[in-house]
Each structure stands twice: as C-alpha cells, then as structure tokens.
Amino acid sequence: MEAKSEPSKSSGGAWAHLAAVRRRSPLVQCITNFVSMDLAANTLLAAGASPAMVHSVAETSDFTPHVDALCINVGTLTPDWVTSMKSAVGIATRLGKPWVLDPVAIGCSNFRLNACLELVELKPTVIKGNGSEIIALSAASLGQAKGADSFHESTDAIEAAKSLARKSGAVVAVSGAVDIVTNGNQVIGVHNGTAMLQKITATGCSLAALVAAFVAIDPSQALEATVSALSIFGIAGELGEAMAKGPASLRMHLIDCLYGLDETTVLNHANIVKLE
Amino acid sequence: MEAKSEPSKSSGGAWAHLAAVRRRSPLVQCITNFVSMDLAANTLLAAGASPAMVHSVAETSDFTPHVDALCINVGTLTPDWVTSMKSAVGIATRLGKPWVLDPVAIGCSNFRLNACLELVELKPTVIKGNGSEIIALSAASLGQAKGADSFHESTDAIEAAKSLARKSGAVVAVSGAVDIVTNGNQVIGVHNGTAMLQKITATGCSLAALVAAFVAIDPSQALEATVSALSIFGIAGELGEAMAKGPASLRMHLIDCLYGLDETTVLNHANIVKLE
Amino acid sequence: MEAKSEPSKSSGGAWAHLAAVRRRSPLVQCITNFVSMDLAANTLLAAGASPAMVHSVAETSDFTPHVDALCINVGTLTPDWVTSMKSAVGIATRLGKPWVLDPVAIGCSNFRLNACLELVELKPTVIKGNGSEIIALSAASLGQAKGADSFHESTDAIEAAKSLARKSGAVVAVSGAVDIVTNGNQVIGVHNGTAMLQKITATGCSLAALVAAFVAIDPSQALEATVSALSIFGIAGELGEAMAKGPASLRMHLIDCLYGLDETTVLNHANIVKLE
After folding, report:
1. What are phi and psi of B179, to 5 degrees?
2. Among positive and negative, which fits the CA dihedral A11, A13, A15, A21?
C-alpha cells in the first residue's frame, strides 16, 4: 500500500502496544516535577500501567531494581533531585531497564541545561521534548551555541532531533502540531493530538511517562513504542476535545478516553506516517 | 435485628459522623505526599473539614497544637519529611490529638519501612493501608520477615491487621474489595466503594485524610469513626461511578457526591457488617 | 451615570485587561505551594498567560530576568523556599518587574509571619489575601499584636488593608464575599465570585497568580489590573457554578469558563464598585 513518493497513513503498532501495556501493567518510576505528578500518575493508571512517584535518593537502590521503566523530568528541578535522578538512572542502565528523559524548559537556566546534558551522557532510551527543547538540547550536546528559547514548529526540529539521536543513541521524540520520532535514521510523523492540549499543564510530562510505559514492554522496539504512545495519547486528546468545553474538561475527557480506548477507535484514528 | 450466624448490614454511625464533621469542621493537618495533596485537601473540604497542608518542621511547634487531627502519609518520603512527621506526631500525642498513619507503598524501600516502624512506635490512633501494606507493616512490627509486595485481598489481611492492632494499640483499616477495620478484638467489614477508585491516584491517601477528620470528632470512638469514613468515601465513589465515563470523571463526581451526600442516601447505601 | 451618594456598578477595565493578557501572554513565574501548582498553572493557561513554576535558587538568576511578573505564595513554606523567593524578588525588583505576594495562612506560625514581613519589606506590587491574612499582616507590619486567626469578613478588613497599603506601598486585595482592593487611598469593591470557590483548594492561590498576569501588562496600573483579575476570576466562578454539581465540577467549569470568556459576558457580569 505504500508508495515512496507519497507516504501513507497507518496505525502502526499503536493498538498492540496499548493492549500490551494493559495486559502487563509495567511499573513506571517517575522522578518528575511537582506540577505534573498528579496528571502523570493518572495517565499511567488510565493506560493500564502502574505509576510509582518515588524520587528520594534514599529509596532508589531498593526500589529502582524492581521497576520496568523510568521517567526523568527536569521541571521544578533542584540539585538534590539531580542526585536522585542520576542514582536511579545508573541503576536502570546497569540492569538494562529503559528510561525516558523529558528536558522540560531546558533553556530556562544553565543549571537545567547542564543537568540535562549530564543525563544525556547516561544514555536515555528516549528523549521527548517540544521543538525548542530538542533544538536547545541537540545544539548543546554538540557543543554549539544554545538554541533560542522561542517556539519552533516540530517539523523545523527534525534535523536537530536526528543529530541528537545520532549523538546520544536515543530515540528522539518532538511534540508539536505533528509529532516527530526518530532514531537518527528513520523519521516517523504522528498526526494525532489537538492544540488545546497545550492549554493544560503537565500534558507533555504525562506523555513522557506514557512513553516510558510503552517502551517498558520491549525496549528493543523503542522507536515503534514511542510512536505508539504519542499516537495513543493524541487520539485520547482528539476524542476528549470532541466532548470538551475548554481545557479543564479536556483534561478530564483525555484521561477517561485513554482509559476507554478500544481497538476499532485506535485503528480508525491512529495517523502515523513514515517520513524518512 | 442481628443474628449471630448471619451478620446483618447496617449504616452504623456513618451519617452521624459525617454530620458532625460538617458541623464542627475539624482542622486536619496533612503531612502527605506531593501527589495526593490536591485531592486530599479537596476531599477534606468536600466533607466539611478544614485541610492544612503544613509540613515544615519550622511550623509544627506553632501550628500543630491548634489542629484537631493529623494525617501522616509516607508517599514521596524524604529524610527531612520524617523529621517533620515525628515532630508533629510528638506534639499531637502530647496534646491527646488523634493521628492517622498511611504507610503508602511501605515495601518499596527499607528507608520507608523503617520510617513507618518508627512512626508506629509513636502510637497512631489509626493505621490505614491496603492489604499488602498492612501485611508488610504487621510482619515487620512483629519482627517477622517482610511481607510480600504482591497484591493481597483485604480479607486475607484480617489476621495481619488484628496482630498489628494488638501490637500497636491502633485501629487498623485495610482497604480492598471489602474494607476491614479492627481494633484487634472487633472486626468490621465495609462493603462500600468501587474498584475504579484504584484507577485514580491519591484516593487511598485522601481516604486516610478523611479518616483523620472523622476521628477528630471523638478520638475515643476511633473504630466507629474509621468505619464511617470508609463507608462515606465508598458511597461517594459508588454514586460517582454511576455518573462517570472513566477514572477522571469519577474523580470529579466522587468529590461532588461527597459534598452533596444527604442522610437518606447514606442510610440507603452504607453497608457495614460486624464480622467478629 | 455615577452619583456620589450611590456608587454605581461598572465593568471597569476587566475586559480590556483580559484581552491584553490573551494578546501578550505574559510569562509569570510562580514560586508557590505544592497544593496549588497545578490549578495555578492551569488558571494562567486558561487566561492566556504563560506559567513557569520555577522555584530553585539555582535558576532564579538565569530565569527571573526573562519573566513578566512573579507570584510569591507562602503555602507549604520551608526555609529554602524563602531563600529562592528573596532571590527572585530581588531580581524582579531590580529590573522593575511587578510581583504579587500571597500570605497564605500567615497566622499559622511565626516562621511564616516573619517570612511574610521580610517579603513585604521587599516591596510587592500587590498583596492578596483573605480578611484574616490581611489583618494579621497589616497588624504585624505596623508592629501591633498578631491579628486573630479567625475568619474576618473582607469588609471588616478594609481599614487593615488601607493601613497595609500605605505602609508597604503595595496595592492590597482582600478576597471575601465582596473583594476589596485598595492602594491606601482609593477603595474598590468587586462583587463577583461565589462562596463555593472556598470549597476548592488553591483557588485563592490561583487568583494570586492571575493577578500577577494582569499586573504584568502595565505595572503602573496595578490597582485597576488587580480589580480586573478579581472580577474576571469571580465571573468565571459564577458561570462555572451555574453548571456545577459540587466543588470538583465547579473547579473544572471555572477553568473552562475562564478560557471561554467573551466581551459581552464580561461586560454583563463584571460588578465593580468604587467605594472610596
């Protein structure tokens, strides 16, 4: 069905990945910002995963060995949290567990940028950000001048994402009007979601947690799992918006729809396109 | 109306306790995890109580003497929070104020287990957990090997709860398909609630805060007050689920229903059974 | 239309201020309590502003110079947060950026009272509290005995607010059945809002964040902007309550209504009265 000159829409493995998350309920440790803990935990629960908001360095050595994936998010970062993140990531990496880095607002301080650069050195499985964040992180990881903080359309960030993916070895996901996922070689576009999700705090962070749950199922398929997570979250947003009267009701319907998604709906709505 | 061979359902003191909370609006200090602060505060407000999310050790000596009850929850625990908890608990105990311990995910680290054991030594009025948590805490407080972390039906946890109640002097509540409350002698079952509440983060933590508000009314009736709080929260969940399309709308309806509960509804729905 | 003997209702600049916030999307840094971060961020987003929940002292020197306004809220205060607050406020003041102080539960400890007094010395643009908080802060800033912690109707707090405004140089807003705003000279009443907003945690904190967004547009018009923010938030609450079944659905509708407010609705509902 595919022709080189005109990439065709597909639903990829979106349904199969969601079904696997529901069946296996991966335990996802989130070391995430204070603003997003609630929505991220509810997103994981709605998708069938098990959230664990455990961030103390006093607990990582006992707890992290038992998790299926880790989500590291640098919003509301302080130095002691960086210590916990590195501790948890070290354990995850040693034990072959996948982990996701969300470099939230990386441009807001050198402290945050440097923390993210150190975390990238620790080999995340997936890096997920918006256009500005990925451009800034890609440039910094290549030793270039800091990328501008202004808004970048995700499609403009494709080259930055590919560079970052090649340099870091991570799958890189860029959220935007069209989400982009790349491993530095393949580039996939996800045409799901709705602009109003940006009017709800913590949706990006919650998406990163969902990516961790999906990648937990089979870390060797991180590219496909990330694409599926973005598509599933976007579909829930689309269905939610159809019922919503504004961002707060969208937030509610988003979670309800994620919880209730069935195969037919996913197959009908998933809009995944292989770009490169 | 009761026959020894067949325990009969009753509404216990559920309505009277809720009415007393609404009338007296007890001030409940919560030293609780970051994930649950929002929902726990809104649960207390919806029940007519006054929440105070005050956790700094710099404030306990001034503030805790004025509260009517204290809720201690070890989710997202760090060492400095343990210090605050012990400070607040020490004041509460000295002044005869009731306090509730919620040993969230006690099995996730030795740090957390040890903190909970130290808190149990400080004589909580009520300990509320799920089956796994109560089994682990009971075993550890009796010096036995750590209980498994896997899911335990609350009914399986009855013996653990009774042992913990006798050892600690606390009323012990075990949430589950049927909630169990015991003082080591009497055992009461609460058949309210709905499974979907487990798909919302922080409902267990919010229930612990509600127990603190109920126990605040008359600490000498901690067993009955705990039973009432569990029944009331469960009824709100049942009513909420009837209107919900998923966990996020259930979360909303749960709070709305708790706020709007009237006597007839409570009497019709409360399902409390004396088991021993 | 106005007569000296009978102050007449007007909509003031409420619509113009909201339209300006939507157009210019001011970046508002919030150093606020853990309970309110989520709702405050969503309030700012719904109003068209850009929230930044950045509280680490490691980030203030890089980040605060780029914000348009700052909101400082002392709920869940700990000593390290006071350090961050003073750092951010120092930068904001030096660069002429407006900032809002919300002295939440100032009466709960001497630690909190003293932190607020030190912050008042740093010249907030606006101080927003309920009657008890403003009375306590006004008395303490004038070296009087601590005001009682009991509830005070906002109208009783007018004299305290005027004294505090004169002493501090800040615009002082007192939330209550009727909100009062004063610069020590003029006194304006805002008759919008609904009592059920008090049954939702963090609405006061979210209102303070909204005031910061409004004041960001033109700090020289802080009195008018504060009045507008209170009126707009109150209108959203009124419209929300008409659809709500309880506090949790009110919380949702509040944000949806804030997002959807149009000029006609604002002009019809804003109820602003010049009192002095």
Report:
1. -80, 145
2. negative
Q: What is the pTM of this model?
A: 0.95
Give B139→chain C minimum CA distance, Å: 34
Query: Over the stretch C30-87, which tens digit does the pLDDT of each residue have?
Result: 999 999 999 999 999 999 999 999 999 999 999 999 999 999 999 999 999 999 999 9
Q: Are A261 and A235 in contact (CB under 8 A)?
A: yes
Residues of C within 8 A of A149 (CB-CB) are 66
| Token reading at C62 | 């890089």
The number of domains in chain A is: 1
Residue numbers in A near C260 (CB within 8 A):
245-246
Q: Is residue A2 part of a domain?
A: no
Give the 3-state secondary structure percentages of chain B, helix then strand then coil, rounded to 5.
Answer: 55, 15, 30
Give me the domain span that covers residue A86. 9-274
CB contact under 8 A, C58 and A108: no
Task: Give the mutation candidate from C30, C38, C251, C258 for the A interface (greatest A CB count, under 10 A).
Answer: C38
Compute CA distances B160 → B130, B163, B200, whole Å.
11, 5, 26
Considering only alpha carbons, which residue of chain C is nearest residue B64?
A: C108
CA–CA distance, C212 with B185 (Å, rounded to integer)? 56
Which backbone phi and psi does A121 adopt, to 5 degrees? -60, -25
Within-domain flag for C2: no
Chain A residues in contact with C42 by the CB 8 A cut-off are 200-201, 247-248, 251
C256 closest CB neighbour out of A39, A109, A248: A248
The answer to whether the Cβ–Cβ distance between C246 and B259 falls below 8 Å is yes
Residue B97 lies in a domain: yes
CB pair distance less than 8 Å for B260 and C249: no
Which CATH number characterizes residue B165's domain?
Answer: 3.40.1190.20
Per-residue pLDDT tens over the stretch A133-190 = 999 999 999 887 554 444 555 567 999 999 999 999 999 999 999 999 999 999 999 9
Straight-line distance from the first to the last Cα atom of chain C, in angstroms, rounded to the nearest whole number: 17
Query: C3: which DSSP letter?
Result: B
Residues 6 or more apart in contact with residue A6 via CB below 8 angstroms: none
The chain A residue lying nearest C47, using CA atoms, is A199
Which chains pack against A, by 3+ Cβ pairs within 8 A?
B, C
- Beta-sheet pairing, C69-73 with C99-102: parallel
Q: Is residue A1 part of a domain?
A: no
Does ipTM come in above 0.90? Answer: yes
B58 → closest Cβ in C75, C79, C249: C79
